[in-house]
Amino acid sequence: xxxxxxxxxxxxxxxxxxxxxxxxxxxxxxxxxxxxxxxxxxxxxxxxxxxxxxxxxxxxxxxxxxxxxxxxxxxxxxxxxxxxxxxxxxxxxxxxxxxxxxxxxxxxxxxxxxxxxxxxxxxxxxxxxxxxxxxxxxxxxxxxxxxxxxxxxxxxxxxxxxxxxxxxxxxxxxxxxxxxxxxxxxxxxxxxxxxxxxxxxxxxxxxxxxxxxxxxxxxxxxxxxxxxxxxxxxxxxxxxxxxxxxxxxxxxxxxxxxxxxxxxxxxxxxxxxxxxxxxxxxxxxxxxxxxxxxxxxxxxxxxxxxxx
Amino acid sequence: xxxxxxxxxxxxxxxxxxxxxxxxxxxxxxxxxxxxxxxxxxxxxxxxxxxxxxxxxxxxxxxxxxxxxxxxxxxxxxxxxxxxxxxxxxxxxxxxxxxxxxxxxxxxxxxxxxxxxxxxxxxxxxxxxxxxxxxxxxxxxxxxxxxxxxxxxxxxxxxxxxxxxxxxxxxxxxxxxxxxxxxxxxxxxxxxxxxxxxxxxxxxxxxxxxxxxxxxxxxxxxxxxxxxxxxxxxxxxxxxxxxxxxxxxxxxxxxxxxxxxxxxxxxxxxxxxxxxxxxxxxxxxxxxxxxxxxxxxxxxxxxxxxxxxxxxxxxxxxxxxxxxxxxxxxxxxxxxxxxxxxxxxxxxxxxxxxxxxxxxxxxxxxxxxxxxxxxxxxxxxxxxxxxxxxxxxxxxxxxxxxxxxxxxxxxxxxxxxxxxxxxxxxxxxxxxxxxxxxxxxxxxxxxxxxxxxxxxxxxxxxxxxxxxxxxxxxxxxxxxxxxxxxxxxxxxxxxxxxxxxxxxxxxxxx
Amino acid sequence: xxxxxxxxxxxxxxxxxxxxxxxxxxxxxxxxxxxxxxxxxxxxxxxxxxxxxxxxxxxxxxxxxxxxxxxxxxxxxxxxxxxxxxxxxxxxxxxxxxxxxxxxxxxxxxxxxxxxxxxxxxxxxxxxxxxxxxxxxxxxxxxxxxxxxxxxxxxxxxxxxxxxxxxxxxxxxxxxxxxxxxxxxxxxxxxxxxxxxxxxxxxxxxxxxxxxxxxxxxxxxxxxxxxxxxxxxxxxxxxxxxxxxxxxxxxxxxxxxxxxxxxxxxxxxxxxxxxxxxxxxxxxxxxxxxxxxxxxxxxxxxxxxxxxxxxxxxxxxxxxxxxxxxxxxxxxxxxxxxxxxxxxxxxxxxxx
Lengths: 308, 510, 352
Hints:
The structure holds 3 protein chains of 3 kinds.
Chain A: H1 2-30, H2 38-56, H3 59-83, H4 88-110, H5 129-135, H6 147-165, H7 167-177, H8 179-184, H9 189-215, H10 227-237, H11 242-262, H12 271-289
Chain B: E1 9-20, E2 23-34, E3 38-42, H1 49-56, E4 64-69, E5 72-74, H2 79-84, E6 87-90, H3 102-107, H4 121-134, H5 150-163, E7 168-172, H6 180-195, E8 199-204, H7 207-213, E9 216-221, E10 224-230, H8 236-244, E11 262-272, E12 278-288, E13 292-296, H9 303-310, E14 318-323, E15 326-327, H10 333-338, E16 341-344, H11 348-352, H12 359-364, E17 374-375, E18 378-379, H13 381-394, H14 412-424, E19 430-434, H15 442-457, E20 461-466, H16 469-475, E21 478-483, E22 486-492, H17 498-505
Parallel strand pairs in B: 3-8, 3-9, 6-7, 7-8, 13-20, 13-21, 16-19, 19-20
Antiparallel strand pairs in B: 1-2, 1-4, 4-5, 9-10, 11-12, 11-14, 14-15, 17-18, 21-22
Helix pairs in contact in B: 14-15
Chain C: H1 2-10, H2 12-33, H3 38-50, H4 53-78, H5 86-103, H6 108-137, H7 141-160, H8 192-209, H9 211-221, H10 223-228, H11 233-260, H12 272-282, H13 287-311, H14 317-330, H15 332-351
């Protein structure tokens, strides 16, 4: 029982940063803008979160500033890909260089030449002390869930509702499927896409901040370490739906948690090979489960009014 | 010609100019459309009709000129303004989200909602049903667009405009993809709309339709106004001459075919699409050398899959395809080409040409492995130059010094000449031409038709697939009508008419 | 004169040059905002790259791996693929070179060439996995390549900690034997750069003078049309990724045999594959251009180190400038349009 609770908390912990970023990816790609930039934005978010939280000694402020920073950084991608109709892979790649570059430069500037931030305060955990006291001795005492986890999963519900029950969702999905149709009905495709891409920046920033304010409690150059790319895979595996993405992130989180548990002392599989597991799993999952039908049709295609 | 009353004008466009780079697409064009009439805009492909209407609908910005709607000067920057001023447009390529339902598509952008932007589907369905009842445009609001016929999709488009309370309805080439019967239904609907006091503008190059239903007609040629006339005062022939600028024969002169042996044969062919639906269903046909077989049919009745099966781009589920007695189903595109089949594909931009390659490289696309153009895998520059020069000259691809020019910089007609040059120079036994004149002007169209007949007279078998029934009747010797993936009947082109084929195309042959 | 003028400004290298200048300019503003002197910093950067023959030699030596990963990415781009997986292919090259360099004995030159060959083969196959998955299942090569990068990364660490290759007590591998090295006269001068230039010329020839290269380019520009004229798109995709992988593997093998000689413990990616992306972009995906853009990035990289030492300007500014350059290249169509507009109005004036 104790183990199950541990695995559960671990899985949630690993899944949450991915989930934030992947939800961002879903929003952006549903509106038709490919978002390979999640990695760079997450890194910048992780830095901003840790730095602001350290300076102000307020984890929440750090968390929200990370969202803002993510939005600022991704707006470059938005300008390039929406207004200037750039190749979205290339402008996304530019962000992936800029995000870590900015983070490290600013980190060195702020922390006297060190790329590592000092320890910052953590986001609060859901279970209060008094409750833990009450549950002492039961397996529940290990239920160590950050509030950030709850936010991420609440966002899944929120975005699902937004997408499938409201007029804004209808417009977002239509923009990703057939932008010209949306345009001829008097809805501004560019505005829709800008909003979606910037939201994805906010969410990816949150994802990064969750890494540096909850999973660890500081920023280092390897804090994000490829999770933005895994989030990208989660978007595809989740077939561009919020609920699908939630399950794929849980799966990746679980795979990651397995490496921690199975990789302990005396493990019969070398820990390094276990660390490969999530990546191998991603490829297998892509091979086995991905159909082409669910891709937003206009994903990655710049929109130009009047062009056929 | 009557001078219409100023106050009664639904649309008045004055001195419209539009440039695309150095090219003048609209040159001082004027348009006056009287309220409550049906008005045609007649012109060839590329004459500027669609550009003019896109400007009216706010999809494109004019470089100069004024637009008055119901006498009010408007600056229409965006479709939103057009919609607010009760203008609706049905585009040639439908603006429908295929994965959405009818109701979702109609509502999009003007949603009926409960508080907090939550969609109210119940109310939407009710409103749409009321609307469809009023104009007799019956529709299933919960059906997805991707599962509907083209005719029904067009109905959704019209409802979309009416849902936005459009008083002026513009239709861009509305009949291009419909069966003759669907065309009749559409015309009936449009006449009903006019009776309800709406103003209808149709963009078209089909003269018979104009004669049937329109009151007035504005003719545009190469971006310039030619005339605005009362339709009743002019014959089809006269309108045609105004459209193209010279007296033209509406029929091309076709000599009689002299068919010989059967070179190409399809037996009981069945092809499934990705979802497992039978797109080609037990289809059989034969083509002799020296004849043109035309496949007439409404879009999406299996034409695409048939071509893909012949060219081995798609798997055949059962049946055989034979050329010169040799079975070629489920082989590779390379083998199909080697066995003597050449294809002029439907979409020259997507399938026929590499737009960022030069003319020379595009001509080389099928021949690059053959000697003397290459040897041991190494391209021979000199030979390739000679080869390209000879084809450019023989097929009159213009400008004559275009060898190194990127294909995207050529005109549509010259691009199609290039495709034909490349395919014909393979000296195939069967030439498959899919919509070979799509988007071409009359001159280029004539060239393509003549070239197809020339190849026929050289003893090739030709399979012509087109959605344009007139083209099929003009060019083909035999006409096979396709419906639901099956050939419902094969007719001699001299012994049939548009009406008979139209009924067959709509599935009326059973 | 005006025509020549126009031709010059409409060439792709002009907009790339412009993007580079903009990148440095905006990077300079950034430095200024962070209280560093941009002019002094860039001066130090330049001196650090070119002021001594030793520095210049270093620029050439350091350019070898990124010229090759750049070539790998550029070649894949030309074939319509985005090889973000050069990183993993590079790593596989390093691993193969280390294993073969430490575990087998062969005569000098043969040993070296054998290593290069095997590294290219293994990395080529590694790259071909992404090509195969794309051809067979239609999975975006970008995503699979990223996953393959991480798998290669952990594979590297797995091999490094094998007792038969590791030096006891240290997190490094044994050094490869002398016969496997590509250095000349027992100095750090090596033949890596020349091998890279040869590879560039071979790829240039392949792309523009052979039928196979013609196929690659046709598939890259329009796979749909290539399919229609009977080119096998799927097999071309796999072969292109194999070649791209082999080039990146060559990069890794040369890096190891010519300057590193042993595997070291990596905490994160060395980034040669990712650097290949901007090398290729700045070269406008021309193979020969990769040599120059590789040298350019190698120069600012080695200059940035002395800039950090001399003026305490953090060398991360280089990453920012690079990101900016890539960003400005991605929107380069804007200034091409702008130039077209300017030259048009100028022409109109002449006509008036």
